Automatic annotation (TrEMBL):
<protein>
    <submittedName>
        <fullName>Relaxase/Mobilisation nuclease domain-containing protein</fullName>
    </submittedName>
</protein>
<feature type="region of interest" description="Disordered">
    <location>
        <begin position="351"/>
        <end position="373"/>
    </location>
</feature>
<feature type="domain" description="MobA/VirD2-like nuclease">
    <location>
        <begin position="44"/>
        <end position="151"/>
    </location>
</feature>
<feature type="region of interest" description="Disordered">
    <location>
        <begin position="405"/>
        <end position="429"/>
    </location>
</feature>
<dbReference type="InterPro" id="IPR005094">
    <property type="entry name" value="Endonuclease_MobA/VirD2"/>
</dbReference>
<feature type="compositionally biased region" description="Polar residues">
    <location>
        <begin position="351"/>
        <end position="371"/>
    </location>
</feature>
<dbReference type="Pfam" id="PF03432">
    <property type="entry name" value="Relaxase"/>
</dbReference>
<feature type="compositionally biased region" description="Basic residues">
    <location>
        <begin position="419"/>
        <end position="429"/>
    </location>
</feature>
Amino acid sequence: MIAKIGKGENLYGAISYNQKKIDNENGQVLLLNRIPETLDNTYSTSYLHQCFEPYLSANIRTEKPVRHISLNPDPTDRVSDGQFVEMAQEYMERMGYGNQPYIVFKHTDIERTHIHIVTVCVGLDGKKLPDSYDHPRSMTICRDLEQTYHLIPATEKQRTGNEQVFRPVDYRAGDVKSQIASVVRHLPKYYGYASLGAYNALLSLFNITAEEVKSELHGQPKNGLVYFALNEQGEKASNPFKASLFGKQAGLDELQKQFATAKEKMKADPVRAVLKSTIEVAMHTAINEADFKKQLLEHGINTVVRRNDEGRIYGMTFIDHESRTVWNGSALDKKLSANVFNGWWNEQAMGQSQEVEKTSAQNQPSTTGNTVEKEETHSLFDFLNKGQPTDDLLIDGLGGLLPEAQGEDYEEQEFANRMNKKRKRKRLK
């Protein structure tokens, strides 16, 4: 079972999202905890929102008081409504929300029947409920629930315990080749991606890009890859490095094999439905692009947006660190394509620009009204650099995943490998 914990401030949007599932006959309310029932057992968005008001009013300082949690069993698991209720109650009790008002919704609009839980993390006394290490605690509870209810365990990569995370490449620090090598030598082992574009989206979080090059060898066409370091604007900031410098697994031939394998595997991957649902929730509740990215980051999902020189979005990629898979938006659903986001965010930007111009005209001399917020693509990965898992953004599905290889001398290592091969050949002779 996979759990996703969303943290935000738009309570009305979270309730409304679930209410729309009910209105479309794709959902139902399974449980109300500390929320009065109505005579006809129907619950409007406004009524449910009012039930949380005393808690929100008691603490106006907490920036993200809303919790929107989803519990997602495997599609082949058969879970009754009664079991869903029991699982929700145990989960919320152990997470510290047992005495809070919360609503349990069941969704049946996708292959994976699952539940969403909406609550708040502030009490009537105005105090915020402690939520340190909530992702590791959530995963422990899910493992216990899988055993109790005989559910299929979530497929997760096991960690050795002595592994450490990588750092994004800093082109100013020198020895760029070793920095790139420490990433691309190991990254393919841990993530699934079905195209070079998806692979580059993941690499961009490490300030790296790969570019296909075409040439001829003995009159035959030959394709390969070169790698570059990127600067803060996502522009090439180093000389190209041939993929062969970083080992066979970093080359185009091996990556294309991995693309084909991942493409087939991801077609039937149950994570797809969970990720799609999570993104749709963020689309429904986010107030702008920055808020959308922030909400998904709370779920351990990076969003990589690719724009052309005119600012038009031509690519949306979502990197789910819990399942370690990379998805193009259009591959998840047509409603998550680049065109959809381009229209949505452009409309928001135009509206904000008009409002700024209107305010400026009323209050002060006219200035530039259309301010474009810088897109911090690479900084979304900064939570990997935290030394201790005290930050809420340190997602357990990613923290401590990749082995530390910074500082290795790869040229010396390659030389030693070649010498070992020569010794083996001599022994065979």
